[in-house]
Amino acid sequence: IREVEDALKDERKRKREEAAREAATKAEAAAAAAGALTGGAEGGTNGDGTAAAAVAIPVVEAGGNKDEEEEPSWELGPEFADFKGASDDRKGLLEWRQKVNAERQRLEKEKLRWHADKRRREKEREKALRAEMEAELAKQRELERLQEELEDKQEAYERELNKYIVRQTPLGSDRHFRRYWWGMGAARGVVYVES
């Protein structure tokens, strides 16, 4: 079961990575289109030369397994990427750092809560699977018990029938290998010939 689950996890991971690559290419195309529309004058690049439009986009797998949620992005948003104020504004820089730290703490709490919920959901899923397997096992045991009970009743019935048969071995046989029976069941005055 673990091998199957691992294979399914790998498949879901591969699909997520493909979806993330597709989303990244779409985001790059959208950023290029937005840059072309604005003429690249505003916000084309940050001070360090990275594109401002390169933002982590959470990817939601369409039609995926409802039980297996994709982990959301725990990265800071683009508004927390760089300080937008003047470089000599110490008060503004301090406020920005406090906002960034508060956002990081909020994201960390949210991440811990999400992982705790995920563990709880996995435990519930395992518990349900275990209960289902136990129910199947109980059903199988009940079926085996009924089958054994039926076999016991059949054997008791055969023993009861054998009580009424006086002779269980033939009297003998003749030169043509026909067997002779006497005293079979209720017909005691009859000799039977089995050929």
Model description:
The protein has three domains: 1-63; 74-163; 165-195, no CATH class. Strand 2 and strand 3 form a beta hairpin. Mean pLDDT is 76; it is low at 39-65. By secondary structure, it is mostly helical. The protein has two helices and three strands; from the N terminus they run H-H-E-E-E. Helices cover 57% and strands 8% of the residues. It is found in: Nucleus. Residues 93-167 form a coiled coil.
Task: Estimate what percentage of residues fall within beta strands.
Answer: 5-15%
**What is the 3D shape?**
rod-shaped
Q: How many strands in all?
A: 3
Number of helices: 2
Q: Structural class of the secondary elements? A: mainly alpha
- State the share of residues found in helices, binned by percent: 55-70%
Distance between the termini: 60 Å
Order of helices and strands: HHEEE
Q: How many structural domains?
A: 3
Biggest sheet, open or closed, and with what strands and sense? 3 strands, antiparallel
Task: Output mean pLDDT.
Answer: 76
Q: What low-confidence regions span 5 or more consecutive residues with pLDDT below 50? A: 39-65
C-alpha Rg (nearest Å): 41 Å
Coiled coil: 93-167
Pfam family, one: WSD
Organism: Tetraselmis chuii
Biased composition (Basic and acidic residues): 1-25
